[in-house]
Amino acid sequence: MSLTALARDAWTGALDLVFAPVCVGCKRLISTDDPERVVCRVCWARCRPVPAPRCPRCWGTLPTQVVRDRGAVVGVRGDDGDDGDDGDDDRLTDSVDSSDSAERENCVDRSAHGSSTADRPAAGGGSGGHPSADPPSSSAPRSSPPPAPKCRACAEWPAAVRVVRSAFVMGDGVRSLVHALKYRGWEAAAGPMAARMAALPWPRDVTDEADVAAAVPTTPVRLRERGYDQAALLARELAARTGRAFDPDCLARTRETASQTTLHPSERRANVAGAFAVPAARRRTVEGRHVMLVDDVWTTGATALSCAGALLDAGARVVSVATFARVFPELERPVPALRRGTGT
Ligand SMILES: [Zn+2]
Ligand SMILES: [Zn+2]
Question: N or C: which end of the chain has fewer CB within 10 A?
Answer without folding.
Answer: N
